[in-house]
Structure to design on (164 residues):
């Protein structure tokens, strides 16, 4: 069978003394291809943390960080240039990582065949991030798929019972 490779994903935490973007009315959420950014600061705002996930666009870590900061600066302003700390985790180099985030499938696999996974086959229901309508390959997609699948199963049980 086809065993998709793990993507090369890095998680970078840019740590600041405060979540300064909140004072500007910004959420801290941004999508700047190929990066995704979220506000990972504690609710009390005791420190500011912008968590960025993405695929490194070069082999030089300093240039990689500089590219991300330049991208974030266009949204959050020049304050992103001065984090008090940067924590990088390259998942592809983690010996305990057996895959996460998303799989890389062959081209057109889900486009051509993914719809078939969304429908039950008798009493077999398919659930998983690849069967989601949105956020395929991510935790959000897995949750969306689980919600859909659990409703399908409940409806199937109800229809097979004597209640109808």
């Amino acid at each position: 069978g086809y065993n998709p490779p793990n993507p090369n994903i890095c998680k970078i935490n840019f740590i600041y003394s405060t979540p300064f973007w909140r004072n500007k009315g910004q959420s801290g959420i941004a999508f700047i291809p190929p990066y995704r950014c979220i506000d990972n600061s504690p609710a009390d705002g005791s420190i500011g943390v912008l968590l960025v996930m993405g695929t490194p666009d070069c082999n030089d870590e300093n240039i990689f960080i500089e590219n991300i900061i330049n991208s974030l600066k266009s949204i959050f302003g020049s304050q992103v240039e001065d984090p008090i700390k940067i924590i990088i985790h390259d998942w592809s180099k983690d010996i305990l990582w057996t895959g996460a985030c998303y799989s890389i499938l062959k081209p057109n696999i889900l486009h051509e065949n993914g719809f078939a996974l969304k429908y039950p086959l008798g009493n077999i229901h398919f659930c998983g991030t690849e069967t989601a309508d949105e956020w395929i390959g991510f935790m959000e997609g897995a949750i969306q798929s689980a919600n859909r699948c659990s409703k399908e199963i409940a409806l199937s049980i109800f229809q097979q019972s004597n209640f109808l």
In short: The chain has a mean pLDDT of 82. The two ends are 42 Å apart (CA to CA).
